[in-house]
Every structure is written in structure tokens, then in C-alpha cells.
From TrEMBL:
Domain Response regulatory stretches: 2-117
GO molecular function: phosphorelay response regulator activity; transcription cis-regulatory region binding
Keyword Cytoplasm applies: yes
Feature: DNA-binding region: 125-219
4-aspartylphosphate PTM sites in chain numbering: 52
GO biological process, one term: regulation of DNA-templated transcription
One Pfam family from the record: Trans_reg_C
PROSITE patterns xref list: OMPR_PHOB, RESPONSE_REGULATORY
Official protein name in the record: Response regulator transcription factor
GO cellular component, one term: cytosol
Length: 222
């Protein structure tokens, strides 16, 4: 899962990134409202946005309005120090999916984010299950046909993307962005290597290569 964090307070941003790191999310940080609108305009894949309201450039509410006006439905969790009910109503009208009032506990942020991602993917439970695989984002555990499987952080993140979107063909580039975000040096064959490991640790036919494009986890036969 790839998260865009838009927060101009460097220490809070660092704290949130640190808290989300063990969750296997790729977290990209921007500190300016205009940059956030630009990032959400292109074809950058993000699974969710954590958006501060008080930002330089454009404030969070303007960012949200601009993003929703273009029809982008990415789930947005708003962070705000202003706890006035008027702000909350305005935020929900502008298309925020959830709210967190500063200061907050990072555990609450993590739980809200998991709920947001789950809702956006239409899942009743946070556990992802398909093709005999069971992945629990809350405990970072994976089982294949009831047997626990140890995965690296990147393998886990990649598997989570496939299980969240059965039948979707991902390009290698999209998967690289989803798993690594912007600011990491990535070997050009990193995704191929992770897919190879997932096939070996789980089972070979789980992830199908789509020649010239990328990879897909086929929907389970109905
Ligand atoms: Ca701020």
C-alpha cells in the first residue's frame, strides 16, 4: 500500500513515517498543498492520502476540493488541529473520508488508515483472502493453505497489492511505485525478484506474467 502524507510539520511528519514503517506501507511525504495537488493529478498511484489542513501553498481543504473536482476518489484521512465542528462538516462536504484531531495516538492513526483502506476496497474484514492465501495487515502475517509463510517487507507489500486487486494487471512501474514510493533507489529488476520469491514461497501459478506489461493475480475461479 502506498500512502501520500501531506504534512508541513517536519517532526510530526517524521513521527508518522516512523509509525507507518512497520505497517509495510510505502510513505511519500510532501509539505506543500500545491505539490500535493500536482502529485495527485498525474498517474501516480496512491492507495490513500493523509492530509494536514494547515499547509503552505494551498491549504488542505483546497487540496481536497481540487482533487475531488477532478473525480479522484483516493481515500483521504484529514489531520487537523482545529477541532471546531464547522471545519469537520466542511471537510466531509469537501470529500474527506475520515478525520483525526491533533494531537492523536499513532495507534489510532494506524487503525483509522487500515479501516479506510479496507472500506475503499469494499472489504468487510481487514484480512485479505484469495487463492488459499490469507494476509492479515494488522499482524503482518501470511498463511498459504493454512501454513505460515515468512515474507520480507517488500514481498508482503507486493502480495498485499495483488490480493487487494484480484484480476488487475499491474505494470512493473506501477508496482515499483506502490512498493517503494519516490525516494528509494530501486534496482530495475526489483519487482521481478520479489515476484520470483513470492511464487517460490507461495505457489508458482499465483502470479501470472502478462507479457510486455507486467503481472496479475487472477481472480479465484467462481
Ligand atoms: Ca500544518
Amino acid at each position: 500500500m502506498r500512502i501520500l502524507l501531506v504534512e508541513d510539520d517536519p517532526s510530526l511528519a517524521a513521527g508518522i513515517r516512523l509509525a507507518l514503517k512497520p505497517e509495510h506501507y510505502a510513505v511519500d511525504l510532501l509539505a506543500d498543498g500545491r505539490q500535493a495537488v500536482a502529485a495527485l493529478k498525474g498517474d501516480e498511484p496512491f492507495d490513500a492520502v493523509i492530509l494536514d489542513l494547515g499547509l503552505p501553498g494551498l491549504d488542505g481543504m483546497q487540496v481536497l476540493e481540487a482533487v475531488r473536482r477532478r473525480g479522484n476518489r483516493v481515500p483521504v484521512l484529514v489531520l487537523t488541529a482545529r477541532d471546531g465542528i464547522d471545519d469537520r462538516i466542511a471537510g466531509l462536504d469537501a470529500g474527506a473520508d475520515d478525520y483525526l484531531i491533533k494531537p492523536f495516538q499513532v495507534d489510532e492513526l494506524k487503525a483509522r488508515l487500515r479501516a479506510l483502506l479496507r472500506r475503499s476496497q469494499g472489504q468487510a474484514s481487514h484480512v485479505l483472502e484469495a487463492r488459499g492465501i490469507r494476509l492479515d495487515p494488522a499482524t503482518h502475517s501470511v498463511c498459504c493453505r493454512e501454513a505460515p509463510v515468512a515474507l520480507s517487507r517488500r514481498e508482503f507489500a507486493l502480495l498485499q497489492e495483488f490480493l487487494s486487486h484480484p484480476g488487475r494487471v499491474f505494470t512493473r512501474d506501477t508496482l515499483t511505485r506502490l512498493v517503494y514510493g519516490w525516494d528509494e533507489e530501486v534496482e530495475s529488476n526489483a519487482i521481478e525478484v520479489h515476484v520470483h520469491h513470492l511464487r517460490r514461497k507461495l505457489f508458482p501459478e499465483l502470479i501470472r506474467t502478462v507479457r510486455g506489461i507486467g503481472y496479475v493475480m487472477d481472480k479465484p475461479p467462481s
